[in-house]
Amino acid sequence: MFLAQHRIGPYRNFTYLVADREGGEGVVIDPSFGVGPILEEIDRRAIRVRRILITHRHQDHWAGRKEVEAHTGALAVAHRSAPIDPAVPVDDGAVLTVGGLTIRVLHTPGHTPDSVLYLIDGHAATGDTLFVGECGRVDLPESDPEAMYTSLLHRVVALDDAVVVLPGHDYGPTPTSTIGREKRENYTLRPRTREEFLRFLAE
Questions:
Q1: 127 pairs with which residues across the strands?
Q2: What domains can be seen in the chain, in order of their start residue?
Q3: Would you place residue 162 in the very low, low, confident or very high pLDDT band (cuts 50, 70, 90)?
Q4: Distance from CA of residue 66 to its chain's centroid?
Q5: Strand positions, DSSP E, the chain
Q6: Would the pTM count as exceeding 0.90?
């Protein structure tokens, strides 16, 4: 598998280019503001981008969508509830195939109702659900702290410890991590009851 991580835009966003191999078929994940470097890498690696995977509705995660679409002809993928008119709406558990890549969708509402993780060959693009050492905000009008409890402390922690975390922003001490490391070191993933978790978020 080929994987490139680019930090672009004014909000330290990570945009990813993932393919089954150089010269093969692939996807762009969360094209943020200023996708020029990603377009250049697509051409340099001769990757045929078939899908644009969007983790949630916030504009910094899809601002470069139109440029990637125009450059590659790829179709945008997002959760069915995302108000961004995805060409390929998906639900929890959906499986997509792009070349030799198999992509599984894990719905993780909390930061936004439409937040998802994309699981690809031992990697998880976590958007703003999980960062390295932190989790996404739940104090926005569309956020749901109770849903975030279920997403983090039931769904995310159930992933294999070896899964590589590909966060949506460069907010942590390292650009990537693993689920196992985050379970050990990320204070937002410490075991808590629902009530304890909601009190923790309120603090």
A1: 167
A2: 2-202 (3.60.15.10)
A3: very high
A4: 18
A5: 2-8, 13-19, 25-29, 48-53, 75-79, 88-90, 95-98, 101-107, 116-120, 123-127, 130-131, 134-135, 164-167, 177-178
A6: yes
